[in-house]
Prior knowledge:
With 198 residues, this protein is an alpha/beta fold. It has a single domain, classed as 3-Layer(aba) Sandwich (Rossmann fold), CATH 3.40.50.150. The chain contains 5 helices and 9 strands. The strands form 2 sheets. A 7-stranded mixed beta sheet has the order 5-4-3-6-7-9-8. A two-stranded antiparallel sheet has the order 1-2. A hairpin with a 6-residue loop joins strand 8 and strand 9. The N and C termini lie far apart (40 Å).
Amino acid sequence: MLSPRQIAPWRRTFEACGQRFHLRRGVFDPARHLSGVAFAEALPHVIETQQIELGTVVDVGTGSGVLAAVVAPIAQHVIATDIDPRAVRCAAENLAGLDVEVRLGDLFEPLGIHERVDLVIANPPYEIGDGDHRYTSPDLLRRLAEQWATYGDHLLLGFPADDAASLDFVGFDVHLVEEIPTAGRPLGIYRGDAPCAG
């Protein structure tokens, strides 16, 4: 349980896909950074056109829960994970009333050793740092690339369409299925399929 000191006050609200979301201090802002909302708005269409069967979905690094909220109505069950207790609290509040389990932990750590999902969705923080010192986190991407197929049959990854080389560099075996223009960098939605996926 989080103490009152650990629970940051609401910072602001934003709308995405016809839903209102609250955002706490310290939680990634998908509206300000463009990619999260763009990914959320495209996700149902991409799932349909890619013909991905949805039983259980895991949203890794859920933040405010916007991606989990969008897939909840079309999946049988959704699990949302985040390493930050503030994000877990924020997502849990935003996802109340939906069939979404919000779990605290790093990447797939909150999943059981034999827990497997049909789809992994992730929009990793690819620009971290401040001002002119922003960079892609190769460690996070590398761990995601190494682990996702252990837990999921399919992957839909949001990442800049103009930076596929970073995904190749860390070992992702994915291909671009959709490019979405934003006011910033174009967002790519990349698909991966686990070797054992049918």
